[in-house]
Amino acid sequence: MESLEFVVMLDGVPEKAELVDFLASLPDWNQKAREVFEANGNHIELSANDRADEVLATESESGYLHYQWSIESTPLSSVTEEQQVEFARALTAELSRMRAGVRVEVLANFEDLI
């Protein structure tokens, strides 16, 4: 069975507080700690990307690996691939509408379905 975890790489949101507040405001998202949430049967953690680099994020072919934020989603219970794909799509859409200039990339075994 393939892993159904996924990571959303996000760039263009300068302040962590703004991103935390945005995630906390999403419907059916429960904030468990400052940067930890549960939603759609997933444990979700927000963290700063240690490899963030503004130049590489825009000029590199794999620039998304250098985006500012990482949002890791791990299923807490049995979810289907279809459910995870839909959740990743919905989260990506929400984050894309957050503010102008935001860049979002999903990293997952099922990323070709997004």
Could you explain the architecture of this structure?
With 114 residues, this protein is of the alpha+beta class. It has a single domain (6-113), classed as TATA-Binding Protein (2-Layer Sandwich), CATH 3.30.310. The chain is built from 3 helices and 6 strands; from the N terminus they run βαβββαβαβ. It has helices at 16-25, 54-59, 81-96; strands spanning 6-11, 30-33, 36-39, 42-48, 69-75, 103-108. Strands 2-3-4-5-1-6 form a 6-stranded antiparallel sheet, with helices on one face. Strand 3 and strand 4 form a beta hairpin. The mean pLDDT is 94.
List the helices and strands and how they pair.
Blueprint: E1 6-11, H1 16-25, E2 30-33, E3 36-39, E4 42-48, H2 54-59, E5 69-75, H3 81-96, E6 103-108
Antiparallel strand pairs: 1-5, 1-6, 2-3, 3-4, 4-5
The overall pLDDT, averaged over residues, is 94
Poorly predicted runs are none
Name of the top-level CATH class: Alpha Beta
Order of strands in the sheet with most strands:
2-3-4-5-1-6
Specify the number of helices.
3
Distance between the termini: 19 Å
Major sheet: 6 strands, antiparallel
**Strand percentage:** 25-35%
Number of strands: 6
Structural class: alpha+beta
CATH architecture classification name: 2-Layer Sandwich
Tally of separate domains: 1
